[in-house]
Design goal:
By secondary structure, the protein is mainly α. The chain is about 45% helix and about 10% strand. It has one domain: Glycosyltransferase (Alpha/alpha barrel).
Length: about 425
Amino acid sequence: MVSISVMGKESAMKIMTSPKGLCAELAEAYGQAAEKSVLAALNPGIFFGYSSVTADGIGHGKNTTFPGLDWGQSADALLWLGRTAEVLASWEHVTGMQREDGLLPFAIIPRLAGKTSTMAEHCTLTADARGAIFRHWVPGNPLRTLANVTVLELAEAIYWHTGERKWLVQQAAMLARTADWLIGQVNEEGLVHGAGYYVERPTRVEFDGVNQCCSARALQIAAELLDIAKYPAEAQRCAATADRIVACFRERFWAGDHCVEYIHPERGAVSHHGLTDVDWAAVATGVLRPEQESILWPILRRDPGFLYGGMPTGIATRPETYEAWEFSHNDRMDLAAMGRVWYLECQARARMGDRKGLMDSLYRVCKVGRENGYNWRERYNAQGGFGVEWYCEYPANLIRVVHRFVLESGSTGIGEESS
């Protein structure tokens, strides 16, 4: 390990440790992402292990937790930064919110505990007595499966980092419930119910392609973990359901030379917005047939349309083609470049051995961070960054990308080396 000096937000000189093998540019970005964002977001004043989605604790609520993805991304980065104790404490907080049927909340907002709030256009958001929210206020209920998938992915990361089989066995019953709820969202054909997997606007009602890919992978992870924990029947059910999702995806989500973005219950398959994040997800998770992948990959890897104002990675290469009916309101917040899409791009490039493409994309994120004092915004479009400041998604994923895909010391699956 080598140490580099970075300036904290309060102008106090601190020492951040970056991994060996990084050039000066990556080492600086890594240290800044860790110090100014991921570690700065830890706030033991809320509770030990609490981490905000923003480094300044302002955007999206000072004590709010988002088990739907944001929490998992930061937790994985914290594991790489050696903060396992905090991650385990936060894990207990989130998994303790699980409903009896296995569903986990996509958000925990203490200030809304026990309340029903009116959101835009007379839609409502209801929190239980603890502030846990299980249904989205946007019509179509997007993010429906996101928390359960995130918990399964983070369980794999914790087990990989700690190697604690005792911990895994202790979590097995909860993980089985988590997987069982997710299996309940899969119909007989293999389509996974749920609107936008990690987007709200566009809502992608009802079968989002990213959801298909990530749910299949999550159930593969669950099968591996439950098998290790000696839950053979549950493991077999997870594996069989994952296979059914993959088989369905190869038939229903293939549009000849790219993937279908989503399947609307009334309008059918939507695949006319150019290449999309579904294409990255399909390659990243390996759900396509080899012949499909061989058609898609040469097109996908070189398309500049995913750069929004130079920032990776946009949701689609033809964002101007989205229509009003695809949005729940006039707000098109998620029609943007986002850290979650960028991670899928990096995962796909790593899996396909495209190191040059991976590094080019990584340097772009570093450049945008450097030009803005290492303050990454929530979203990016052709005009630049927007949404909340000091958002932890890009910096957390920068740390994850460096370890999992650049240094080749991460894991894309239990016991597997990253490509």
